[in-house]
Amino acid sequence: MQWTPSQLAAAAAAVLLLSSSSSHSQLQVTALPTGNLIPNPFNGDALSWLDQSADQLSSGVVHGLNAAIHNSDGEPTPLSSIPYTPPPSANSNANANANANANSASNDKSYGIAYSPYNPDGTCKTSPQITHDITKLSSFRFVRIYGTDCNQTHLVLSAAQPLGGLQVFAGLFDLHDLDEQLQLIIDAVHANPAANNNPWQAIHTVAIGNELLNRAQATAAEVVAAVQSARETLRAAGYHGPVVTVDTVAAHLQNPELCRVSDYCAANCHAFFDETVPAEAAGDYVWGQVGVGAAAAPPPKRKKVLITESGWPHAGQTNGMAVPSLENQKAAVQSLRDAFALDPSAEDEEVRLVLFSSFDDLWKVDNGYTFGAEKFWGILGH
Ligand SMILES: *[C@@H]1O[C@H](CO)[C@@H](O)[C@H](O)[C@H]1NC(C)=O
Fold first, then answer.
1. Where is the composition biased (Low complexity) (predicted)?
2. CA angle, corner 210, sides to 29 and 137, nearest 5?
């Protein structure tokens, strides 16, 4: 089965702000709220994000911080930037310290982590290699994979199964041979006698597509139809968990139907691609993107948001204030952990962040928008 490394490339940063204005004709620029202004958009059992407000606003009153849209050639085109407003440092530090005590690296259960099973030359990793990798991720709540190629659903599920509840966020990254790909997932689940009478307990989510709109590889209508069809197939096979499509925040805001067709809203969001955001502000920035939507979209149509990718590269070229380095990766990942930490005593709290990524993806290829950093987002192993 084919896969294309560049198509799996990390997200362009996507940050669009919803305005509360109902005017469609004027572009409006809104300062980014900080975590302090929106104390906890995840309070309650659901989160307002993209609903009828997004519908109304998406046609014109949507703005980007380096948000990627596409020109007629399908290439991402940066939109105009507006400055990032850092949160008050005193509060930010206090929060960070408090969280650091309660949620050190030992509490990986607050997060998922992304994983791809390819060698640097793009060939598939073997079963023992995958088992070796996945064993290192056992402290997390779940591992996110992207495709059904390389027998990866089967191999990652098998590797995760003995690791005490490590779930798999399964996916397929393109819509070709949708039914065959779904069958691979279904077969993999049934081949792994994970949880007693419910083998699907090992699956956190099934994602149909990753950034297909951001990369202009499918239309919104195609993605919506694929999600609906996939959900039907998976339900018939006994899976009753979430079925979603993943795209950038920008793509979601421009296409609210992506969120609507998903069982929750699944968005990749990387502060690194915003030239105004330093590493230590990554957590507040990403949290703020969720909060902006939460504040702008009133009830009753509430939906949970999961950030399905966020991280920071440890090598590559500088993007304004966003500087890749080991030290900055550490700071960015800590700030993301702090912003998205769950209460360790509330074991049933739902994860809201997938850290990106577990290991360096040396098989990836840079393009004009990746700052030579595409291979170097791995958090572990160095
Ligand atoms: C996937 O891996 C499992 C376990 O090694 C194996 O039994 C199965 O035949 C493999 N499937 C394919 C399509 O290679």
1. 90-103
2. 110
CB 155 near ligand 1, within 6 Å: yes
Cα dihedral sign, 24-28-34-39: negative
Strand extents, DSSP E, the chain: 16-18, 62-64, 68-70, 76-78, 112-114, 142-144, 167-172, 203-210, 243-248, 265-268, 305-311, 353-356
> Crossing angle, helix 152-160 and helix 178-191, to 10 degrees?
30
**3-class DSSP state of 327:** helix
Distances in whole angstroms, Cα of residue 95 to Cα of each of 35, 227, 266, 291, 341: 10, 38, 26, 17, 11
**What digits encode the pLDDT tens for the residues 274-298?**
999 999 999 999 999 886 655 555 5
Q: 151: CA distance to ligand 1 center in Å?
A: 6
pLDDT tens for 62-82 read 222 233 333 333 333 332 223
What CATH architecture does domain 5-356 belong to? Alpha-Beta Barrel (3.20)
Instruction: Report whether residue 151 contacts ligand 1, using a CB cutoff of 6 Å.
Output: yes
Residue ranges of the domains in the chain?
Answer: 5-356
